[in-house]
Write a structure and sequence with these properties.
transmembrane helix; hydroxymethylglutaryl-CoA reductase (NADPH) activity; 45% helix; 3-hydroxy-3-methylglutaryl-coenzyme A Reductase, Chain A, domain 2; 15% strand
Length: 573
């Protein structure tokens, strides 16, 4: 029986055997995997060599201790000792080669996600704007373009940009001054469009902090007010939740929910699943071949091999599992992995690319269509995220006392339970909702995402939520919970390193990476999102049950200017 885990799937008809594939038809060398030389699966081989190393070391230590006590020369060795020494050396070489190389690769490999873990965010804020001597971002022009002669005066540069002689996207790399580049681009845009953009501020922002990672072709920045709801008493912590929004009444409503939760003893949460996903799609000549790769990937005996290959890309990304789906001769492979405190899309993508390169040797007829086949599923509402989760899967709950329901929420338990069933459960079912069994979870998710530097587009799947309300303790008290299976957040990378967003993360105590427990900051942020959603759901449902929704929005969600104009209008007789 063939025990090589990489040969469990028979080759296609007419394919060349492994040893003959070492060189192709044109003398092109094909990559041969180191595991091909092993007669056993890698996990068994690791166990054998580990046991051999431990047994040889213990045996030699005991023998040498006996020789020292008996004053026997150490260089006088028996055949058994020679065998033990050889076994010790051989096992040590194997273990160093297997584990050491992977460790060195993970340390040497530079990735944006890893750098975010080891670079303190205070250093990130102190970074100076890039100078002309620095390597320009690849997105902002080639090094060759940076060496071309550039006009010295801003007016000449603006005219050249307007005339199309200088591309706008090379200004940063060729000027070496991000603020100056943004100003020139803005002036060129004003001349081209005839629009002044007076309300869009230009000064007061560190444009170097977004170079090559957050935004291209900047001409200014948008100001958003940030409100604070709280304290949110969650898992014994008193948290003040930053929310960036332009919707009046949203922060006030969430704040009321926080008050109700705090006066009832607080809320509790649990992260019951944590794993980012990426799902490449590959195509085969036949559906049978696609099914063979599916069987290979989902075979538990092959997981250790795949994990070793996947985990080389990062010190924090660790493969958790692979789930496959077939559509004709196309195979969709949904990889899930832990990502530390990063949201982790880049991290998992690198690991997936490693696995695809590895599989190509055993499946030469595999055609990689895309690194993402939408089975992930990223920035789209999908049942796979609702069922299997993506990012952090969180449930948050609280028991609201009867007196708090009446005093703070201005309603009663029975009315809240009935409204939740008719609106959030039955109403959403009538609408054909997918993960939308809630009142307005996306409102809170979007506000916190923008304030803390998350990807706002991932609000689509992150706001999937089911809100449950039940009467307990003989109908006197209210048990309320929110279950959110795909909260996609991180505390390093992307927009989290910007000054304003970093300050909001610091307010929550989750700024940057947690060195003692990697991943705990991101998980805490996910629970804060769920806790804030719980508070906002409780408050909005109460307002609707009491008939206060329109009244509160008329008070908080209309500009004072509009109200003044309406008041000044002459009344008709």
């Amino acid at each position: 029986m063939d025990m090589d885990v990489r040969r469990r799937v028979p080759p296609p008809h007419g394919s060349v055997p492994r040893r003959q594939q070492a060189t192709g038809a044109e003398g092109e060398r094909v990559r041969v995997q180191a595991g091909d030389a092993l007669p056993l699966p890698i996990r068994h081989t690791n166990l054998i060599f580990s046991a051999l190393f431990a047994a040889s070391l213990v045996y030699l230590m005991r023998r040498w201790r006996g020789k020292i006590r008996a004053s026997t020369p150490l260089h006088v060795v028996s055949p058994a000792e020679i065998f033990a020494i050889c076994g010790l050396v051989a096992s040590l070489i194997y273990l160093l080669s297997f584990f050491g190389i992977a460790f060195v690769q993970s340390v040497v490999s530079s990735s944006d996600d890893d750098e975010d873990f080891i670079v303190d965010s205070r250093h990130a804020r102190a970074r100076a704007p890039p100078t002309p001597a620095q390597t320009p971002c690849a997105l902002l022009g080639s090094p060759a373009a940076a060496t071309e002669k550039m006009p010295e005066e801003d007016e000449e540069i603006v005219a050249a940009v307007v005339a199309g002689k200088i591309p706008s996207y090379v200004l940063e790399s060729r000027l070496g001054d991000c603020r100056r580049a943004a100003g020139i681009r803005r002036e060129a845009l004003r001349r081209i469009t005839g629009r002044d953009m007076d309300g869009l501020p230009l000064d007061g922002f560190d444009y170097a902090s977004i170079l090559g990672q957050c935004c291209e072709l900047p001409v200014g920045y948008v100001q958003l007010p940030v409100g604070v709801a709280g304290p949110l008493l969650l898992d014994g912590r008193r948290l003040y939740v930053p929310m960036a929004t332009t919707e009046g009444c949203l922060v006030a409503s969430t704040n009321r929910g926080c008050k109700a939760i705090a006066e009832s003893g607080g809320a509790s949460s649990v992260v019951f699943r944590d794993g980012m996903t990426r799902a490449p799609v590959v195509r085969f000549p036949s559906a049978r071949r696609a099914a063979e790769l599916k069987a290979f990937l989902e075979d538990p005996a092959n997981f250790d091999t795949l994990a070793v290959v996947f985990n080389r890309s990062s010190r924090f990304g660790r493969l958790q599992g692979v789930k496959c789906a077939i559509a004709g001769r196309n195979l969709y492979m949904r990889f899930s992995c832990s990502t530390g405190d990063a949201m982790g899309m880049n991290m998992v993508s690198k690991g997936v690319q490693n696995v695809l390169d590895y599989l190509q040797a055993d499946f030469p007829d595999m055609d990689v269509i895309s690194i993402s086949g939408n089975f992930c599923s990223d920035k789209k509402s999908a049942a796979v995220n609702w069922i299997d989760g993506r990012g952090k899967s969180v449930v948050c709950e609280a028991v609201i006392k009867e007196e708090v329901v009446k005093k703070v929420l201005k309603t009663n338990v029975q009315a809240l339970v009935e409204l939740n069933v008719i609106k959030n459960l039955a109403g959403s079912a009538v609408a054909g909702a997918l993960g939308g069994f809630n009142a307005h979870a996306s409102n809170i998710v979007a506000a916190i995402f923008i304030a803390t530097g998350q990807d706002p587009a991932q609000n689509v799947e992150s706001s999937q939520c089911i809100t449950m309300l039940e009467a307990i303790n003989d109908g006197k008290d209210l048990h309320v919970s929110v279950t959110m299976p795909s909260i996609e957040v991180g505390t390093v990378g992307g927009g989290t390193q910007l000054a304003s967003q970093s300050a909001c993360l610091d307010l929550l105590g989750v700024k940057g990476a947690n060195r003692e427990s990697p991943g705990s900051n991101a998980r805490l942020l996910a629970t804060v999102v769920a806790g804030a959603v719980l508070a906002a759901e409780l408050s909005l449902i109460s307002a609707q049950a009491a008939g206060h929704l329109v009244q509160s929005h008329m008070k908080y969600n209309r500009s004072s200017k509009a109200l003044a104009e309406e008041t000044d209008k002459p009344k008709k007789c």
